[in-house]
Amino acid sequence: MKIGLDLDGVVIDSEKTIRTYLELYAIDELNGKNIENREEPKMHDRYNFTKEEEEKFIDKYILKCSQESNLMSGFKVVYDKLKKQGHEFVVITARGGYTEEMKTDAIRILNEGNIDLKNFYWHTSNKLEACKKEDVDIMIDDDWRIIDNLSKNGIRTLYFRDTNMKKMEENEYVKEVNNWGDIYREIMNMTKKEK
Predict the structure, then answer these.
(1) Is 70 exceeded by the pLDDT of residue 195?
(2) Together in a domain, 107 and 25
């Protein structure tokens, strides 16, 4: 099975770190600006930031957030098991879009965890195109909009939903997972059905 992986919020725990710094930024530097929509994963939709506010956050905090991030809990053990079983991986991520150093830092985190991923799509806004090109069997992502687009176009997905993120209705193309144990169970179930 070929498994598509998003990095932030799926392989690397950066989304929680970013949301922490977003709160600090909104409270301390934007006079307590409130969250507009907790279900939204992207900062401009979550806080209704102006372009200037968003750029200031990116310049000041985004690399710091990456540098303070780690592999998601459970990822290494599940990755090793799936790799040993012969599953292939392709990383399809928007990372690298804000700054090239984010890409370099992701590689550092993966290398420190002894994660040997070779196939990358960096700074990818059209994940559907990449999934089709790579002929992925399943894509794991934490952004409901991406999951919605992929699933409506016949790509099976695992929606790695974090606290407060939008709930989606499950169907044959969308399954919700909350940790790497859930992901392992879903992939094992799919593998059994395909035999």
Answers:
(1) no
(2) no
How do residues 38-76 score in pLDDT, each as one tens digit?
887 777 778 888 899 999 999 999 999 999 999 999 999
Q: How many domains does the chain have?
A: 2
Range of the domain at 170: 2-13+71-194
Using the predicted structure, report yes or no on whether residue 126 has a pLDDT greater than 80.
yes
Q: Are residues 63 and 128 in the same domain?
A: no
Residues 34 and 84 in one domain: no
Mean pLDDT of the chain, nearest integer = 92
Give the C-alpha separation, 37 to 118, whole Å.
36
In a 10 Å sphere around its CB, with 0-12 CB exposed, 13-18 middle and 19+ buried, how is residue 81 labelled? middle
3-state secondary structure the chain: CEEEECCECCCECHHHHHHHHHHHHHHHCCCCCCCCCCCCCCHHHHHCCCHHHHHHHHHHHHHHHHHCCCECCCHHHHHHHHHHCCCEEEEECCCCCCCHHHHHHHHHHHHHCCCCCCCEECCCCCHHHHHHHHCCCEEEECCHHHHHHHHHCCCCEEEECCCCCCCCCCECCEEEECCHHHHHHHHHHHHHHHC
Please identify, among 67, 90, 109, the residue that sits at the C-terminal boundary of a domain.
67
| 140 plus 184 within the same structural domain | yes
Judgement on whether residues 103 and 179 belong to the same structural domain of the protein = yes
